[in-house]
Design goal:
- The N and C termini lie far apart (46 Å).
- Helix 10 crosses helix 11.
- The chain contains twelve helices and seven strands.
- With 343 residues, the protein is α/β, with parallel strands linked by helices.
Amino acid sequence: MAYSDVTIVVDEQDDLFYTRAALQAHHPGEGRITVQPTPASGSPAALAHDMLYALGKRLAPGPNSPDVWLDSVNAAWLAAAAWGVAMGVRHVVVLRAHLLTLRRIDQLLAWRELTGAQLTLLWQKPPRGLPPALARVERRISGRDQFEAILAEPGPIPARPSFPPVLPAITGAAAMAAGQAPAPQPRGTGAASMRPGRRAHPCVGALATAQLVPAAPAIEVASEEAAALAALAHPLIAGALGVLAFTRAGLGSLRVTRDLDITGDVCAIKLHGVGHRYCPLHAVPAWARPLLAGARAHHRLAAHPPGDGVFAPVMVAEARHLRAHAGRLSRLDLSLPAGALVP
């Protein structure tokens, strides 16, 4: 475990100044969030839920909530890490860290290691009570000026999950020069096949497809509905329902959507039909790009290869979680009938 990006702010007097400064520093759009742990919560995933809340995500309430699977510690922290990476979080400030259990401190340090964000903990009691995991942290401060200076720092560049790049298909002279056989071309690549939404070669990813055909324009979604989707806690749920909203594609189209079916800039996504007879490219609207970025980060942090289905984990059990959330967003008209798993 590396501790170079962990800072402990010792506030023995519980000075209100530190709490106010930390809360005022909360600016997710600038890559800095402040987490307020829920006091005396017995839920094993409580701190991960607090992290999701600080990231602007809201879990669906109720005993039969479709977000019940986020009660799992691993699932909740993976979701929080994916959103942190996708949103470019660079600095996380945690209030009242002295009240956290040893287990939750370990979870927090593991999250920091996974995302690469800078972590600042407000320890509002004497430092002699620091647990072993934090006693090794070298950077400790106790002055107001030092704390304000830390909050003003831009923070490190967040960690990004990486894979070997998926090479786009190349053709003609470029392919010969690279020593590769030219990539097969889809039939009828004339003017008719260049219209938005026409199918391209079903095996290549979104980047290669974008070199052959333009993307179909996104269906307009009202800002209120886009905001409701952006507040969903699980990245795969938010990403999947976002795609259905701006494409109106069948749910089954998401079953085989791969990492390489999303362009690097998250501006286009390729969906697949039965037997790859129709695999259109769709433009991703600006509001949906963070959602797809979160889904892709979740996929990569879970160590799936680029060829695996990004949304496969939420397509099991007749996509029960997706259907439940779709029912809560009735204004989007994302009703998913029983046969919707077939595109």
